[in-house]
Amino acid sequence: MTQAAIEIIDLSKTYKGGKRALDGVTLSVQRGSIFGLLGPNGAGKSTLINILAGLVNKTGGTARIWGFDIDEQLRNAKNSIGIVNQEIMFDPFFTPIETLDIQAGYYGVPKAERRSMELLRAVHLEDKARAYSRTLSGGMKRRLMVAKAMVHSPPILVLDEPTAGVDIELRQQLWSYVRSLNERGVTIVLTTHYLEEAEELCDRIAIINNGRLIADKPTRELVNMAQEKVVEVTVDRDLDADLPNHDHFEKIERSGPRSLTITYLKNRATAGEVLGLVQGQGFAIVDVSTHDPDLEDVFLSLTRAAA
């Protein structure tokens, strides 16, 4: 099947009072992928997700989930997606297994076909199945939210900041489960402020800022957009006030008595050329280390430029 898992065309949302949360966003999420949706706070990510969830009415544009238009085929669209919201939402007086059984009932899943204990086992909550949900830790509640979103076996799972407040071990468990779901064919849409997670997990990343789509590329291609690179150089003698300089250096700073931090643009010079320019000004190089740009560098560059 070549049809997109999620297809959004010219989507817009203006709230009462004139605040424009989404401004003509168009993007497509490929089936079977892990797709990152990034942006600063207030960029419009949660509004977009809440439109897909049926919690917010769009002002204009089109959105299709697994081929179903959210206006014309809302029930089928909702059955095709599971959403883990930022806010932890379930009745604290129900046990985890009751929470999942009730949620499955909302989706019309017959009792014989419910997978409540299987889902609790998958998110490492089997031993808490009959404890009151209010007694769970924050990380356990997050994992229960993921299980709750999967009760109707949707082909798409949306995770909105799923690891906020979760410790490293539980975060790794959650990502292990998400990867296993993706390997079984579930399409994952992820929003996160942990950009290293997005860079590691996502096949493709879109960035939204001020309600507009400012980037939508394969992850590696997006990271390669970063032009600034940094080289740390240790030289053979103490540095005086006159540091080596050249037009190819965007910035040069003394980071120690004999150490320099040089920032340069990779479309203007290579690391070898930078080192040659330092040597050409009378310095012998004792040690070198480099910093390659990452998703955070690209994210900051793009969002600042679009501000």
From TrEMBL:
PROSITE patterns, sorted: ABC_TRANSPORTER_1 (PS00211), ABC_TRANSPORTER_2 (PS50893)
Superkingdom classification of source: Bacteria
Domain ABC transporter positions: 6-235
Record keywords, A-Z: ATP-binding, Nucleotide-binding, Transport
Name of one Pfam family that matches: ABC_tran
SMART domains registered for this protein in UniProt: AAA
Coiled-coil stretches: none
GO molecular function list: ATP binding
Keyword rRNA-binding (UniProt): no
PANTHER family: ABC TRANSPORTER ATP-BINDING PROTEIN, ABC-TYPE MULTIDRUG TRANSPORT SYSTEM, ATPASE COMPONENT
Protein name: ABC-2 type transport system ATP-binding protein
